[in-house]
Specification:
Strand order of the largest sheet: 1-2-3-5-4
Radius of gyration: 57 Å
Helix content: over 70%
Strand content: 5-15%
Oligomer: single chain
Length: 697
């Protein structure tokens, strides 16, 4: 087995050297070969009908793109088909520059980059259909990097920019950096892909987180791996609909979680991690896309857990389940793990020939597979126990070399993890500073808004006071105008009374005397013609006398009735003006028959008092119901105004010079030698004024 490994290593070195010298020549003759582009009959018949070219001897760029897009979706291809599609990709890669339509050129270049990326993922460090002993070399990492840079240079901005394509190309480039062991460049490029998805298209964010999780899984940093798996799952859950969540990506995240939990299980022997792997195994059964592929990987991890539980037959059974679920399981990333646990379990069961056959399939120089260390440790211990010191020494040297190389990778992983933590903390500080700045700006904004609000409130308050004052003045002017009109109406009525009296006493009396003289003249006249004329004049004067007498009586006797009606109307007008029906319930009672003897001056004073009382109610009382009553009691006129407002402290208001007008009301009543009483509490206020009628007549 050792000779086989050494022979394989020398073969790989010779192959790499040969490729190093032949690759420039190969690239030089590409333009010449491209004019005679063709594919073999074997590849032609292996292609699906939907992508098979019309003429295999003369391929078009669009047909090449279709072939490259479907290559790594084929499930039954061998190294032979992949070798030919690799050659096809190299021959047609430069054709992208000949495509005139810009979107087609972009899509073609993207397909070239994607093919090269998938080729590296598929072949790097693996055997094509492992177990054949012939390692497949994929020497196009530099070319893949070159074409990725071309895409980034041309389409990272501009009218044909596509965020999803750019983010994927950046992730591919990060993978190319990993292949050349430029780990920090790979890490920073992954972050750039993540930022591109976060900035332009959050639909691809979960995929970028998953690829970062895979990156840290490469360095066996399970904690960081699980952190990015959580971020990927969280971003996936935020997609608008369940149908928008790629099932294949969900399965990929489950696979990465299982590997991270398996690593933690090996480090801690904590059975809770084994339980999580079993639960994730059950979850992987429900994933339909690529179900067999991911389920096979899950069985391999369960095989490792069974081995560490000393359940060697169960471990072998799980490896067999993986091969049944996915017959080409040797193409899985976890294939080496499957072979190790199979070989070790066989050795534990004493089946050494079968174990040696299994170990012969492994490349024990592959330092990227930590599981190889267990094999080297087992072989070293076996040779040591058998006293084969020379072989044991060789295995120990290889184990030391392996550990040294793994240590370097581990140091790289720790350095990247520290770089990540530094960037996270730096970002947290930036976020904290930005948050503090935003909070300060919010406080300034809130303060400014409060100041503006106060200014607006002050302006509105002043405006409302101005409007209220204006409305009050207008209302006062209207009321005074109404009072003036009322006074004029009363004066007019009084003037009509005087005119009626004058008409009765003067004009009507004179007409009566003239009529009497005519009657005497008619009696003395013997001339019939003259008598007829005098009779006609007598009738005219008699009619005029009756009319003047009727008018004088109407003007004289109608004065009191109209004056009484006018007084009640004046009070109602005052009440309606001060107390609109929409806000107040009013009851106004004026006993006209009993106040017919009130003088005009007294009526005017009463209107002024009522106006002042109503004004005070509006300003201070907050009342809803007002009652006004005016009646005559013996030789006194009684005015009673009552409301259901909040009331006030009468004694306190009396002590204030500038109260609610009580002083002026008292003075108005005292001028008429009347009496003024007021009672007020929380249920309302009542004002009673008693004025002697004798002083008013």
């Amino acid at each position: 087995m050792t000779a086989l490994v050494m022979k394989s290593g020398r073969s790989a070195i010779h192959t790499a050297a040969l490729i190093k010298y032949l690759l420039p020549l190969f690239l030089f003759i590409l333009p010449v070969l491209s004019s005679y582009a063709q594919i073999s009959e074997h590849l032609y018949t292996s292609l699906p009908d939907s992508v098979r070219p019309q003429n295999r001897m003369h391929l078009k760029t669009a047909e090449v793109k279709q072939i490259l897009d479907c290559t790594y979706k084929m499930s039954n291809w061998t190294r032979k088909e992949y070798s030919e599609t690799d050659s096809l990709c190299m021959r047609f890669a430069t054709k992208y520059a000949t495509i005139t339509r810009e979107p087609d050129r972009r899509d073609y270049l993207y397909s070239i980059c994607e093919y090269l990326s998938q080729g590296i993922n598929y072949h790097s460090g693996k055997y094509s259909l492992r177990g054949s002993g012939k390692k497949y070399e994929f020497p196009f990492n530099e070319i893949a990097m070159e074409y990725s840079n071309k895409f980034i240079d041309h389409y990272s901005a501009g009218p044909y920019f596509d965020s999803g394509m750019l983010a994927q190309i950046l992730s591919n480039k990060a993978n190319f950096y990993v292949q050349t062991e430029s780990y920090f460049d790979a890490y920073n490029t992954h972050l750039l892909a993540l930022e591109t998805a976060r900035k332009f298209n959050k639909q691809h964010l979960s995929r970028k987180y998953a690829q970062l999780a895979r990156f840290f899984e490469y360095f066996d940093r399970p904690e960081m791996t699980l952190v990015y798996c959580d971020s990927a799952s969280n971003a996936l859950s935020k997609l608008p609909t369940v149908s928008a969540r790629p099932a294949a990506l969900e399965a990929f995240i489950i696979r990465i979680r299982q590997i991270a939990n398996f690593s933690l299980y090996l480090k801690t022997s904590d059975e809770s991690f084994a339980d999580k792997i079993q639960k994730l195994h059950n979850d992987s059964k429900s994933i339909m896309p690529r179900k067999d592929r991911y389920l096979a990987g899950s069985y391999i991890l369960l095989s490792g857990i069974a081995y560490h539980h000393n359940q060697y037959n169960e471990s072998l059974a799980y490896v067999d389940s993986a091969s049944v679920v996915y017959p080409r399981y040797q193409l899985l990333d976890l294939w080496e793990m499957a072979m190790v646990y199979k070989a070790l379990s066989l050795r534990k069961l004493g089946r050494f020939p079968e174990s040696d056959q299994t170990l012969a399939k492994l490349d024990l120089a592959d330092i990227k597979r930590p599981i190889i260390e267990q094999v080297l440790m087992q072989l070293y211990q076996e040779e040591l126990d058998s006293d084969n010191l020379k072989k044991a020494l060789r295995y120990r040297d290889r184990l030391s070399s392996f550990r040294e190389k793994r240590y370097k990778i581990d140091v790289e992983g720790k350095a990247i993890e520290m770089e990540h933590l530094f960037k996270v903390r730096q970002r947290e500080r930036e976020i904290s500073q930005l948050t503090a700045l935003q909070n300060r700006n919010k406080m300034i904004l809130v303060f400014a808004m409060i100041v503006v609000a106060l200014v607006i409130i002050i302006l509105v308050s002043r405006y409302r006071r101005s409007v209220f004052k204006t409305q009050s003045l207008v209302k006062q002017l209207e009321t005074e105008t109404q009072l003036q009109v009322m006074h004029l109406e009363v004066a007019r009525l009084e003037e009509r009374k005087i005119l009626g009296q004058d008409l009765h006493n003067g004009f009507a009396s004179s007409l009566a005397a003239v009529r009497q003289q005519l009657e005497l003249t008619m009696m003395d006249s013997e001339d019939i013609t003259v008598r007829d004329k005098l009779t006609y004049i007598h009738n005219q004067i008699d009619d005029l006398y009756e009319r003047s007498r009727s008018t004088s009586h109407e003007w004289y006797h109608g004065f009191n009735e109209q004056l009484q009606q006018s007084f009640a109307l004046q009070i109602k007008i005052l009440a309606d003006s001060a107390l609109p029906d929409s806000h107040y319930k009013k009851t106004i009672t004026v006993e006209n028959d009993e106040i017919s003897g009130i003088s005009l001056a007294m009526r005017i004073n009463l209107l002024g008092i009522i106006q002042e009382l109503l004004t005070n109610i509006v300003k201070h009382a907050k009342a809803r119901s007002i009652h006004i009553l005016i009646f005559q009691d013996s030789d006194f006129l009684i005015l009673n105004v009552k409301d259901d407002g909040v009331g006030f402290d009468v004694e306190k208001v009396k002590s204030i010079k500038k109260g609610i007008g009580l002083q002026s009301l008292r003075e108005s009543v005292l001028k008429m030698q009347g009496n003024f009483k007021i009672a007020s509490d929380s249920t309302g206020t009542e004002v009673i004024m008693t004025i002697p009628l004798g002083m008013a007549l």
